[in-house]
Design goal:
28% of the residues lie in helices and 23% in strands. It has 589 residues and is an alpha+beta fold. It has three domains: 195 residues, Phosphoenolpyruvate Carboxykinase, domain 1; 274 residues, Phosphoenolpyruvate Carboxykinase, domain 3, CATH 3.90.228.20; 81 residues, Phosphoenolpyruvate Carboxykinase, domain 2, CATH 2.170.8. Strands 1, 4, 5, 6, 7, 8, 9, 10 and 11 form a nine-stranded mixed β-sheet that branches. The protein is globular. Bound molecules: oxalic acid and manganese (II) ion (MN). The site of oxalic acid has 3 residues, from loops.
Length: 589
């Protein structure tokens, strides 16, 4: 036992009585204990140790083919009143859900060990950090949590002996039965129950479950924000660093932006980009009235396919030691890993992600699952911010929303003010790609990229954003929208993207410092084409003008789509947002 906190001890006892493990092991976070668990997982085949020279401290793990992704249709927000979960979440009453799941957990850990994992989301000692305890029967979960969080007995320091403010996470693999898989949140009880999965997003309860779903609910009640945002810093040649936070739906290049490599024109002047976080930001007003952000995580749980030396050298470098790979291909010649898009040299003598013999040169099948992952320590990242562990967080100058839109949204625009920015975020959308099942090019609305992650009514969430703006007043970050995905008539991307996205970030920072004028359009402030630096690119200001074009006919359609989307929120949609929509329609004429 690593704590005297009676609330923790009582709850752990209750869960032991329910799950009936053969043994209970408290995870202290020590290397000795982790090494013993790595050895055990290696002996049972749960983890496969990779080449100790090429990938020191790295392991491969495979999940069952029925268990490779988050399951939104089996994810629930259980609030006492149905209307508090809102129209976008799956809801069930806490009483009914506890009654359904309790028998499933009864005796589920017989013959197994229960690991008690204390962890901190955020730097230990940070006023923005929070404590969680996850109970699990999976060593894979323990070893991933050791990378993704500040795990071990120090996490209890923040809690003290009497506090009740910790998130109670209970996970069991059970039989990994997809029919009985549940990822359930009880925001009113600070509790998460996950059963019948062993895939990261469903079982690393500190991540989406706590740091977004439960934390968004806590943030609303406590005056802060939990957002699906990366955090990056841009350092100018004088050594001054400005920070931005940015939200994008899946498959929009969030991890790449978070670890951006500055293009030559900026690098040679001495600009640098620092990664504070790639997925989640917790934001709270600081003593000076500005909004400060921490990354509550301690590692990256990134999608492997497509990650390579060109697309994201920093992410790739992060995975070269102490990393757990899940569902990638194994090169049998040298015990290294491979995935689609890593390089043009797939191994011939390999096992695919399911463990079957696989020849990358001749096989039609994929070697790695499209959602295969790396769990890599943030400290490995060559551009990890020196402020990564700063308990106070970093001050945010701009918040950026974005999506994948072929024609509608311009390369970049700035909202007129905070309220308008909340409107822009609430109407965020992405067009579906061939990467997902279903029709291509369909607009999926994903407000603030929080659609699958908001732990309460989305209308109230918009209201909370508006309240935060009131609180921050003129210290509030400026809000922008970007779109890297405009296409020409042949469907080719016009904007080069990747590192060149920094050119847009530079305009954003100039706007935050009032260094550059803008053009007023019906949807917001846009750059003058010549204010986006195209030095060294093969495109000129005429192409930038195209990328900034706002088509009123398309935007009228867009406004109609927003009206339809808003309708589901009924009277919980803040009146201010309805007014914003009316005003947009009026400006469009
Ligand atoms: C993620 C996601 O895995 O957003 O980060 O789906
Ligand atoms: Mn994410």
């Amino acid at each position: 036992m690593l704590t005297k906190n009676q609330n923790v001890l009582k709850w752990v006892d209750e869960m032991i009585a329910l799950c009936k493990p053969d043994q209970v092991l408290w995870i202290d976070g020590s290397e000795e204990q982790l090494d013993a668990l790595r050895a055990e997982a290696t002996a049972t085949g749960e983890m496969y140790p990779l080449n100790p020279e090429k990938l020191p401290g790295c392991y491969l793990h495979r999940t069952l083919p029925n268990d490779v992704a988050r399951v939104e249709d089996r994810t629930f927000i259980c609030t006492t009143k149905e209307e508090d979960a809102g129209p976008i979440n799956n809801w069930c009453s806490p009483a009914e859900m506890y009654a359904k799941l309790t028998p499933m957990y009864d005796g589920v850990m017989k013959g197994r060990t229960m690991y008690v994992i204390p962890y901190s989301m955020g730097p230990i000692g940070s006023p923005l950090a929070k404590v969680g305890v996850e109970l699990t029967d999976s060593i894979y979960v323990v070893l991933n949590m050791a990378i993704m969080t500040r795990m071990g007995k120090d996490a209890f320091e923040n809690l003290g002996d009497t506090s009740d403010d910790f998130v109670r996470g209970l996970h069991s693999k059970a039989d990994i039965d997809p029919e009985k898989r549940y990822i359930v949140h009880f925001p009113e009880d600070n509790t998460i129950w996950s059963i019948n999965s062993a895939y990261g997003g469903n079982v690393l309860l500190g991540k989406k479950c706590f740091a977004l779903r439960i934390a968004s609910y806590q943030g609303k009640n406590e005056g802060w924000m939990a957002e699906h945002m990366l955090i990056l810093g841009i350092e100018n040649p004088k050594g001054e660093v400005k920070y931005v936070a940015a939200a994008f739906p899946s498959a929009c290049g969030k991890t790449n932006l978070a670890m951006l490599v500055p293009p030559e024109i900026y690098a040679k002047q001495g600009y640098k980009v620092w990664c504070v976080g790639d997925d989640i930001a917790w934001l709270k007003p600081g003593k000076d009235g500005r909004l400060y952000a921490i990354n509550p995580e301690n590692g990256f749980f990134g999608v492997a396919p497509g990650t390579n030396q060109k697309s994201n050298p920093n992410a790739l470098a992060s995975t070269r030691k102490g990393t757990i790979f899940t569902n990638v291909a194994l090169n049998l010649d040298d015990d290294t890993v491979w995935w689609e898009g890593l390089d043009k040299n797939p191994p011939e003598h390999a096992l695919d992600w399911t463990g079957k013999p696989w020849n990358g040169k001749t096989s039609e099948e994929k070697g790695a699952h499209p959602n295969s992952r790396f769990t890599a320590p943030a400290k490995n990242c060559p551009c990890v911010s020196p402020e990564f562990d700063n308990p106070q967080g970093v001050p945010i100058s701009a918040m950026i929303f974005g999506g994948r839109r072929a024609k509608t949204a311009p390369l970049v625009y700035q909202s007129f003010d905070w309220k308008h920015g909340v409107f822009v975020g609430s109407t965020m959308a992405s067009e579906t790609t061939a990467a997902a099942t279903g029709a291509v090019g369909v607009v999926r609305r994903d407000p603030m990229a929080m659609r699958p992650f908001c732990g309460y009514h989305m209308g109230d969430y918009f209201g909370h954003w508006l309240e935060m703006g009131e609180k921050l007043g003129d210290k509030a970050p400026k809000i922008f929208n970007v779109n890297w995905f405009r296409t020409d008539d042949e469907g080719h991307f016009i904007w080069p993207g990747f590192g060149d996205n920094m050119r847009v970030l530079m305009w954003i920072l100039d706007r935050c410092e009032d260094k550059v004028d803008a053009v007023t359009t019906p949807i917001g402030f846009e750059p003058k084409p010549e204010d986006i630096n195209t030095e060294g690119l093969s495109i000129g200001a005429d192409v930038i003008a195209d990328l900034l074009n706002v088509d009123p006919a398309l935007w009228k359609e867009e406004a109609a789509g927003i009206r339809e989307f808003y309708a589901q929120f009924g009277d919980r949609l803040p009146q201010e947002l309805r007014e914003q929509l009316d005003a947009l329609e009026k400006r469009l004429g």
